[in-house]
Amino acid sequence: MGLNRNPYKTFKIIKGIGRAWKEIEYIEYHSLRHAIRSLYQSKLIGAKQNKDGSITLQLSDLGRQRALTYKLETMVLKKKRWDYKWRLVIFDIPNNKRRLRETLRFYLRQLDFYKLQKSVYITPYKCEREIEFLVEYFKLKKHVRFMVVKSFDNQLDVKKYFGLIK
Q: 92: phi > 0 → left, psi -120 to 50 → alpha, else beta; which?
């Protein structure tokens, strides 16, 4: 705007900024509403109407039950009957976060994951909550991916490792 000599264009830019700001507010508002609605539908939160007309959102009993509270040192996977699905953890943590990368590897080994590659670990046991806890605790959300897969090429070796072959 400061380099613009034409006052007409300056006013046009100022007018456009107002519209752009409203669009940003609209997008943020709708994404927040969508997030709250999905939590409400999953019955993890409940809404309470206050006397002044406002609404308070609070964790439901199910939400409290699902809240992630683990002790890192004693965290283990429950080794129930295999559902024929593999849980895969893939990560690409940059070199400037090397310590976090090594820490994540340590905890994946502690949880008895099988190392497929340097940054790919696998287990046949349900572990979504545990991995979600580790990722949130160490703030690695944008570096870690979790997948559930039915099969992969060298699963015979992994089945032997976990004692799944009779």
A: beta
